[in-house]
Amino acid sequence: MRRFRGGRCFRIRVVRSRRLFFGWMMNSSKNVEDARSLTQSAEKLTKPSMGRIIEVIRDFVRRVSMSLRSVLQGLFQGQPFTDLVAKVDKISADMLIVVTAVTSMAHTVNALDLPSLHAKLDLILLGDGSLTLPDTNGASIGEVVAVPVFFKGDPLLEISAFGFGGGGSPGFAFNSAHFMFRGVTPGAFLTDWQGFDGNETNPGEVTIGGFAGGGTPIDGGQNGVLFYVNLEILVDTFTESQVRLDNYVDDVANFKPQPVYGRVLFGQ
């Protein structure tokens, strides 16, 4: 009987926790609807210079919807309840910023410093995910250097797919007179991903992409090496050679800066 009562109490606590959690979910969903409504109101006032603001708001609504789906999945996968509440609280706080900004826009449309507002909304709504290419050193002809691609994730958005390049646009670019492409190597976050590869489409131009599939998505806010691009040194006639990462798609589409540049240093 004690075991039964203990189990029953545990189930009651879980049910209550879930009810509470879904209350937060409902509030966040209402905020999403509020943002959509405000966007529609803004469209009625639209001038050409306001198009970018509306585009950014729509993008944020999409991102919030994805985040809420992620939280809901986490609930049924047994993630700690406190972690999920923290995620929802963060979403709600960001939604409050959006609603305040759009309401202000609707009331002061003729007095807005639009370039400044565009920049602020980009910072708030498009997230703060970033990519960097640190300097890499090589010492001899025939050596294969691994150029690391570092990432800092957007706290609101997990990464379950990414791409660089495609459709005729290069993702990773390098000087083909200095190097030969020798493939890509996944970082620690991609070890169980279903797909990851890089292909040289033209000399010095590589398309790179990956998707988690049944693997583990990268949680929002993580940081580290996403992957390495391997380049074999062909000549010793340079002291530094520029590399570039560009044309981001999927879950890294809004990462900054775009493009990002790095260097391979020789004999230094």
What proportion of the residues form beta strands (DSSP E)?
25-35%
Based on the coordinates given, report the CATH architecture of the largest domain.
Sandwich
Class of the largest domain in CATH?
Mainly Beta
Q: Are there runs of 5+ residues with pLDDT below 50, and where?
A: 1-22, 42-49
Tally of alpha and pi helices: 4
The structural domain count equals 2
Helices and strands, in order, run as HHHHEEEEEEEEEEEE
Mean pLDDT: 75
Indicate the radius of gyration in whole angstroms: 23 Å
- The counted number of beta strands is 12
CATH topology call of the largest domain: Immunoglobulin-like
* Sheet having the most strands: 8 strands, mixed
N-to-C terminal Cα separation, in Å?
74 Å
Helix content: 40-55%
Shape: elongated
Brief account:
The chain is 40% helix and 26% strand. With 268 residues, the protein is α+β, with helices and mostly antiparallel strands.
Can you put this structure into words, describing what you see?
The protein is of the alpha+beta class. The chain folds into two domains: 2-125; 130-266, Immunoglobulin-like (Sandwich), CATH 2.60.40.680. The protein has helices at 2-44, 51-76, 81-107, 114-125; strands spanning 130-132, 136-138, 144-152, 161-164, 172-173, 179-186, 195-202, 205-211, 223-233, 240-245, 248-250, 260-266. Strands 2, 4, 5, 7, 8, 10, 11 and 12 form an eight-stranded mixed sheet that branches. A four-stranded antiparallel sheet has the order 1-3-9-6, with no helix packed on it. The longest helix has 43 residues, at 2-44. The chain is elongated. It starts with a helix and ends with a strand.
